[in-house]
Write a sequence for this structure.
């Protein structure tokens, strides 16, 4: 989006028409409210950026189908000329005409028609350049079908528009939908506008609406429309004196029959603009982040670099993009309804005064007159930025231009890094509502994202602090490593040809996150369908499983106007976290996943695990939708965002920890209840405190040895040499266990039945070596960086007989011989070793033995005794023999 | 290709594209549906895939295709527009009707062209009152209201006294007549005396009713004038003479009788979450009370009563109104049963804002007649149109008396003089609700749904619903009957509340379920146990974690 510059933010409001009572759609579901349809259709307007058009920023739904649209706004418009009552110079008229046509032509290229051209919708910026406003109204209301008011102003309607008549779908006498208008209707309206400018007065002022329209229609049987209109308004003299090119422009615009009237594109090339057009360079769309063309291709530095930073009294906020400013305005306490109410645009009557008297059984109400407050008043109100500006007075100018390069420098290089620590300690919810903090984050992220992929590592680093909601879509895409010309790839996928999955997709979409306005809009459904189909078609080895729709939802929501990015993100996300989950026969993958999950519950919370196993409440019963959809099926979008902000930073085993964290939040209720209650509880998952869940899952993750979540069906090792040469983001949390190269000390795949038999997870020898910080192990790669909290504390328990133990063991391990460890009741036999074990309760207990079965039984016994964090060394002591790490205790002196 | 629902007539046109690859010359022809619905770049991708086009023609193809679509679309627009304009010149289209319909819609839907609004006294008063009640003057207002209330109360107790005296006198007279029955007096004479007594009562009652009405009217007028004046005076800052405090008159009535309720009231509150992913929070309350308890003012000027009155007054013109569902029979009046009781209660205090009940009911009667007429004419227009369930016997009923309303229909009255309620939904039910086998499609239940819908559209955030769909218990209402009914209503209301989320975006509401006074305490707790099983009660927040 372009930056704010001297523009202002404006808001106007209107009502969508109410739906008839209790009518169902063809699929048996309730009809979508018209306001939601409009909201969905509006979204695309946000992407329409052109110097001659007012940038659309946002739309919001109020009560009772009210919609409020926020857009770029200027106080002055062509109406000002009319108020002055003077005619405008021909040069100025040509300039205005050319600029309006530029805007219209750009709209037409995107398939839009203005239809509501009028003097107060042609705004003028400070330099006197034209900015068209309200050009999206016709599009967002489905050509006027979703509102009760006509679009356009009587004096400016083209004859063919009037001839269509006023028809509305809610009107039973008109069954056909309103006919759509083509680009030429705007040319007529422009003609009327230009005529008014030339004549210096408004047309048809003295007539009432019906007469005005009749007059316009009657122009069909006139030869020279311009002369007739001029005569009618007594300004023939003025018109006659106009230069020939202006007159010919007027004639061309005011051609009665559309076939004779040029389109905006035709007119722009017309010789009448010969002198004007040379002053204008065609607008070039800025290149987005993911495209095949060079982003810097058209970057031009001024000859004198110092000119760039000439004026030091700059308004830094005005240099930010208009949607950022609006976002901050909202954070700083901006309230659209209040602004509009203050200006008297929203006038609501107390509801007690507007109640109907009588309601029939089918819900039709009687006895209420038409409420005047529902009438259209499309005046645009300027939103005052003063509150935001006072809020941001303390933000230094440097904060708007953070330096990214010298990361290591000890100098306080950017304001943000100075201030962040203070704010970072606050809860995320508060940070997301803090105006200054968000400004800093947005500025910083905006800059880093611009530098993607070069600054990929910085994205990871900053994302670990938090991700500003405004830029989440792009930030996620970079975290997922999206690169390349995604649009071309997406375009080349056939999303139209019917496939067998269509039916299922069609059934699932109207049930997926429909509380959300965007996703429940018809536009949302269309986009859902396209992205899902594109994924299904482009992944022939995988199939559509129910749940894929939920998985798609967050990406689609964040990249609503960029299906290609949504598709790319989804395609990158699934192999990373849900590798092979969408196979036609995915049972082995899911079974292994759930078994590992079950082991992790036992690892982190033995008491809960014992209880759940006892009542037979196994993960298969509740956790499949959790993992298959990465929790998108169970949480609302705003919670998913916070969850995934962290999930995307973690590796593919992080979801296990989230699962355990959810269970722990419901711990008390689960422990207190039996099987039936648990099933009921999970059938409709209670509210989960997501911030706590994230915090705890990170904690759990840190306590989990990496190899404990080993899965043989996980994504195989990727090719580590990445083309861009920046390497993986170095982090303990991000590197997958599967990513590290396989050595002798890694875990061996296990049969599912064997895996299922074990209560505790196995860990690999290399993990053990790493965790116990056994030296001399230089031949394998250690993770480069660890979270500051440090590695989990470990105690190795050697359960071989004491002779074996004495013959060689790893240093620091304690000997608890298997045969003597447990009493007949399964309790630990007291002794010095068991006392040590007891005293180290809470540490990760690694059971080491010769035979795996024995270790697994031992571990199971410990879990039964509610020992947390018990795991088994995969392969037993034998694995370690080759490493030379076994030590013989020096004989006691 | 996307299926066209026959909405817009489509035409097929052929797009041809020629290109050379090496020495070969190729021609690509594609049939296209106009108006073009699909995305051009998608179409392009599909063409490339389908015809295995070489990538070097991609850009040419794209420009050619775009140009073709653009040109053809404009031609279509032009042709369509010109046929329309043609019709105008050939008079196939009536120009007057056309322009009038435009003029009508402009004047009906846009402020710019609408007729200026005539000032509404009711709304002006509403604004003034809302402002005053939210100012320090609210105390004065409430005291004034209370004083008016007391004088009405005195009047009513006087009336009751006089009626009682008359009845006593008549009883004595009747006794003496009865003793003479068969001796000097015949049955006829007794009847004559009885009818005389009845007439006497009627006369007295109507006399009092008139007086009451007169006093109320005067009070209302005085009050409104006073409020407007107060508002004016407050606007001019220096003039604060009117600000003299109005003190609450001590009530001269004995307050012993006023303590009937509250003791027997049982109530239990729940906080629930609705929705699968996004949850909205609502409050539910189960109450055992008389339905009119929500309407009656406590006579003793205790603090609680005043607070409640203030609460009601504050929210009267706000966007959080309180509603009550009253179950009535099919006639719109206030002559019998609960309707009469309600009317009596509503007269205990002057309504300073809205027309009084009888007047409102008269309006409703007219609206009902109008609605019937509308419906009939509509049905005649489209005989094969969708019929609502059981319309056959409905129409039979209707033909008998069009001023009666049907089960599931309801009318709304507005009151400012009730203690906890602003809006009363008079929901029509028939004897069917007493039977044990009503379903979720029953008119009464549908009526509830529509009531909740009105609550959404008119910002009624607290609604009281009779849980068992009856106000009084009778013998056939056994324990299983009660449980079954409660389950049905709970479940239906839950469904409707979930639906409401899509109507209003999930505003938190309070729904009060009311059960009659006469059910046992045990029954009440059975019902209160049932509620959390049907609704998902939110877990209590534990501040101290065990771990």
């Amino acid at each position: 989006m372009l930056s704010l510059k001297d523009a202002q933010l404006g808001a106007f409001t209107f009502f969508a028409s109410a739906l008839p009572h209790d009518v169902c759609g063809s699929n048996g579901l309730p009809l979508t409210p018209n306001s939601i349809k409009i909201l969905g259709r509006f979204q695309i307007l946000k992407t329409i950026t052109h110097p001659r058009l007012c940038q659309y920023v946002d739309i919001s739904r109020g009560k009772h189908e009210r919609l409020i649209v926020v857009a770029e706004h200027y106080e002055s418009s062509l109406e000002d000329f009319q108020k002055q009552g003077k005619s405008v110079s021909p040069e100025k008229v040509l300039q205005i005409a050319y600029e309006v046509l530029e805007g219209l032509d750009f709209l037409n290229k995107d398939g839009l028609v203005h239809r509501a051209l009028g003097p107060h919708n042609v705004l003028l910026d400070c330099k006197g350049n034209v900015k068209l406003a309200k050009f999206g109204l016709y599009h967002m209301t489905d050509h006027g079908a979703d509102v009760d008011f006509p679009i356009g102003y009587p004096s400016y309607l083209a004859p063919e528009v009037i001839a269509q008549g006023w028809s509305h779908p809610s009107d039973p006498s008109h069954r056909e939908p309103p006919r759509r208008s083509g680009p030429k209707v705007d040319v007529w309206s422009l003609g009327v506008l230009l005529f008014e400018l030339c004549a210096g007065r408004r047309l048809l002022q003295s007539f009432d609406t019906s007469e005005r329209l009749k007059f316009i229609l009657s122009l069909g049987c006139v030869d020279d429309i311009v002369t007739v209109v001029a005569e009618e308004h007594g300004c023939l003299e003025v018109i006659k004196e106009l230069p020939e090119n202006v007159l010919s422009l007027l004639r061309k615009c005011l051609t009665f029959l559309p076939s004779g009237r040029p389109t905006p594109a035709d007119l722009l090339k017309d010789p009448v603009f010969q002198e004007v057009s040379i002053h204008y360079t065609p607008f070039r769309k800025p290149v987005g982040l993911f495209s095949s063309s060079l982003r810097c291709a058209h970057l031009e530095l001024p000859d004198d670099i110092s000119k760039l930073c000439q004026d030091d009294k700059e308004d830094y906020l005005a240099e930010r993009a208009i949607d950022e400013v609006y976002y901050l305005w909202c954070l700083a306490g901006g309230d659209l309804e209040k602004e509009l109410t203050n200006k008297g645009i929203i006038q609501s009557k107390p509801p007690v005064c507007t109640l109907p008297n009588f309601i029939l059984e089918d819900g039709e109400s009687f006895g209420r007159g038409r409420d005047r407050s529902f009438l259209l008043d499309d005046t645009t109100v300027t939103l005052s930025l003063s509150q935001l500006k006072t809020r941001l007075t303390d933000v230094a100018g440097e904060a708007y231009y953070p330096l990214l390069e010298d990361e290591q420098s000890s100098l306080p290089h950017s304001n943000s890094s100075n201030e962040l620590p203070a704010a970072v300690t606050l809860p995320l919810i508060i940070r997301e509502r803090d105006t200054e903090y968000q400004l800093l984050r947005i500025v910083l992220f905006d800059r880093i994202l611009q530098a993607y992929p070069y600054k990929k590592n910085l994205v990871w680093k900053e994302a670990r602090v938090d991700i500003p909601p405004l830029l989440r879509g792009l930030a996620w895409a970079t975290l997922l490593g999206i690169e390349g010309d995604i649009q071309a790839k997406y375009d080349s996928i056939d999303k139209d040809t019917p496939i067998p999955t269509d039916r299922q997709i069609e059934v699932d979409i109207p049930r997926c996150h429909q509380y959300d306005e965007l996703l429940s809009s018809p536009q949302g459904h269309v986009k859902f369908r396209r992205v899902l189909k594109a994924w299904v078609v482009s992944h022939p080895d995988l199939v559509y499983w129910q749940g894929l729709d939920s998985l798609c939802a967050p990406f689609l929501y964040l990249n609503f106007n960029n299906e290609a990015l949504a598709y790319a993100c989804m395609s990158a996300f699934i192999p990373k976290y849900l590798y092979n989950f969408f196979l036609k026969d995915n049972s082995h993958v899911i079974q292994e996943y759930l078994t590992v999950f079950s082991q992790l519950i036992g690892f982190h919370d033995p008491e809960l695990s014992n209880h759940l196993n006892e009542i037979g409440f196994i993960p298969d019963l509740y956790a499949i939708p959790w993992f298959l959809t990465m929790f998108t099926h169970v949480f609302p979008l705003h919670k998913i965002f916070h969850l995934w902000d962290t999930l995307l930073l973690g590796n593919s085993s992080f979801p296990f920890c989230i699962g355990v964290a959810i269970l722990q939040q419901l711990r008390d209720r689960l422990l207190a209840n039996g099987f039936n209650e648990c099933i009921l509880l999970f059938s409709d998952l209670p509210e989960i405190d997501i911030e706590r869940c994230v915090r705890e899952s990170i904690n759990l993750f840190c306590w989990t040895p990496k190899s404990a979540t080993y899965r043989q069906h996980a994504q195989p090792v990727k090719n580590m040499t990445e083309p861009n040469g920046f390497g993986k983001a170095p982090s303990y949390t991000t590197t997958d266990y599967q990513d590290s190269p396989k050595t002798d000390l890694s875990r061996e795949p296990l049969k599912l039945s064997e895996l299922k038999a074990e209560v505790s997870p196995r860990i690999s020898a290399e993990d053990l070596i790493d965790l116990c910080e056994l030296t001399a192990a230089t031949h394998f790669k250690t993770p480069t960086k660890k979270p500051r909290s440090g590695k989990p504390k470990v105690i190795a328990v050697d359960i071989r007989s004491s002779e074996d133990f004495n013959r060689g063991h790893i240093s620091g391990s304690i000997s608890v011989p298997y045969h003597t460890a447990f009493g007949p009741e399964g309790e630990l036999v007291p002794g010095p070793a068991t006392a040590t074990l007891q005293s180290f309760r809470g540490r990760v207990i690694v059971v080491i033995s010769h035979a795996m079965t024995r270790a697994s039984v031992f571990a199971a016994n410990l879990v039964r005794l509610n020992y947390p964090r018990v795991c088994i060394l995969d392969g037993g002591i034998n694995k370690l023999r080759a490493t030379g790490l076994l030590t013989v205790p020096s004989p006691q002196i | 290709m996307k299926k066209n629902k026959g909405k817009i007539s489509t035409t097929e046109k052929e797009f041809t594209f020629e290109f050379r690859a090496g020495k070969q010359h190729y021609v690509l022809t594609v049939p296209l549906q106009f108006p073009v619905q699909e995305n051009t770049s998608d179409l392009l991708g599909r063409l490339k895939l389908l015809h295995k086009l070489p990538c070097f023609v991609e850009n040419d193809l794209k420009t050619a295709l775009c140009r073709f679509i653009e040109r053809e679309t404009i031609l279509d627009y032009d042709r369509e527009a010109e046929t329309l304009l043609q019709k105008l010149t050939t008079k196939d289209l009536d120009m007057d009707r056309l322009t009038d319909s435009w003029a009508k819609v402009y004047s009906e839907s846009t402020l710019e062209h609408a007729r200026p609004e005539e000032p509404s006294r009711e709304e002006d008063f509403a604004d003034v009152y809302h402002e005053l009640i939210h100012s320090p003057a609210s105390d004065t207002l409430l005291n004034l209201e209370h004083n008016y209330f007391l004088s009405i109360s005195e009047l009513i107790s006087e009336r009751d006294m006089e009626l009682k005296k008359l009845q006593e006198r008549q009883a004595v007279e009747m006794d003496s007549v009865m003793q003479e029955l068969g001796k000097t007096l015949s049955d006829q004479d007794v009847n004559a005396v009885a009818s005389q007594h009845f007439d006497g009562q009627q006369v007295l009652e109507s006399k009092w009713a008139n007086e009451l009405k007169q006093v109320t009217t005067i009070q209302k007028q005085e009050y409104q004038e006073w409020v407007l004046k107060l508002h004016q005076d407050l606007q001019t800052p220096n003039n604060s003479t009117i600000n003299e405090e109005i003190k609450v008159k001590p009530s001269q009535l004995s307050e012993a009788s006023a303590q009937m309720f509250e003791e027997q009231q049982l109530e239990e509150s729940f906080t629930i979450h609705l929705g699968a992913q996004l949850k909205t929070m609502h409050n539910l309350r189960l109450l055992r009370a008389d339905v009119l308890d929500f309407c009656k003012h406590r006579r003793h000027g205790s603090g609680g009563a005043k607070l409640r009155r203030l609460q009601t007054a504050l929210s009267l013109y706000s966007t959080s109104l309180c509603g009550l569902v009253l179950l009535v029979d099919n006639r719109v009046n206030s002559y019998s049963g609960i309707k009469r009781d309600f009317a009596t209660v509503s007269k205990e205090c002057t309504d300073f804002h809205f027309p009084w009940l009888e007047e409102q009911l008269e309006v409703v009667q007219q609206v009902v007649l109008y609605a019937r007429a509308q419906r009939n004419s509509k049905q005649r227009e489209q005989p094969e149109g969708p019929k609502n369930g059981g319309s056959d016997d409905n129409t039979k009923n209707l033909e008998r008396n069009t001023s009666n309303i049907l089960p599931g229909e309801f009318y709304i009255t507005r009151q400012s003089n009730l203690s906890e309620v602003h809006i009363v939904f008079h929901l029509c039910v028939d004897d069917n609700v007493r039977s044990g086998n009503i379903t979720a499609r029953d008119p009464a239940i549908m009526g509830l749904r529509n009531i909740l819908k009105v609550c959404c559209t008119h910002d009624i955030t607290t609604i009281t619903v009779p849980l068992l769909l009856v106000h009084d218990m009778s013998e056939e209402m056994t324990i299983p009957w009660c449980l079954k009914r409660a389950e049905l209503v709970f479940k239906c209301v839950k469904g409707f509340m979930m639906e409401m989320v899509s109507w209003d975006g999930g505003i938190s509401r309070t729904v009060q379920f009311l059960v009659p006074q006469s059910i046992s305490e045990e029954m009440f707790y059975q019902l209160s146990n049932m509620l959390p099983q049907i609704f998902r009660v939110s877990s209590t927040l534990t501040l101290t974690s065990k771990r």
